[in-house]
């Protein structure tokens, strides 16, 4: 979900926070950073913590508001994601692995924690985008919200044909 949510995000959207204090770029950096840390502890002989992970352009207090920087952070996230997929392919999910707070946990539990973290922040990014884009539900998935009019804010899902979309848009 997270990968799909990020494919079409513009720089303006990535820098926006929809009135809050967490931008999509900031959320993406957070997710990639912790994904890298958890992976490092679970699979590397000399694990690295948050301050020593391979941040794009180094760990920094301020970001560079450029498309190039966004692309680097996105590529970093995708690398951490692929590392997880590769590493767990033939791994013993019952076996204990180190975690960054000390001690160990079964690899399967670590995988569930990381995947849950990805899913949580995927939903957060989706919510920020929906607010920024003034979008409601996909056509056909509307819910009754008597106190909020969603009329004219439906979203055409990518799989929907032109004919189906026309029917929804006329109704």
Task: For this entry, give a set of tags.
mainly alpha, Four Helix Bundle (Hemerythrin (Met), subunit A), 171 residues, single chain
What features would you describe in this structure?
β1 (96-98) and β2 (104-106) form a beta hairpin. It is built from 6 helices and 2 strands; from the N terminus they run ααααββαα. It has 171 residues and is mainly alpha-helical. The protein has 2 domains: 2-133, Four Helix Bundle (Hemerythrin (Met), subunit A), CATH 1.20.120; 138-171, no CATH class. α3 (24-43) packs parallel to α4 (67-88) and α3 (24-43) packs antiparallel against α5. The protein has helices at residues 2-6, 11-15, 24-43, 67-88, 107-133, 162-170; strands spanning 96-98, 104-106. It starts with a helix and ends with a helix. It is globular, with a radius of gyration of 19 Å.
Apparent shape? globular
Q: Say how many strands there are.
A: 2
Distance between the termini: 30 Å
CATH class of the largest domain: Mainly Alpha
Helicity range: 40-55%
What would the average pLDDT be, to the nearest integer? 88
- Major beta-sheet overview: 2 strands, antiparallel
The Cα radius of gyration reads 19 Å
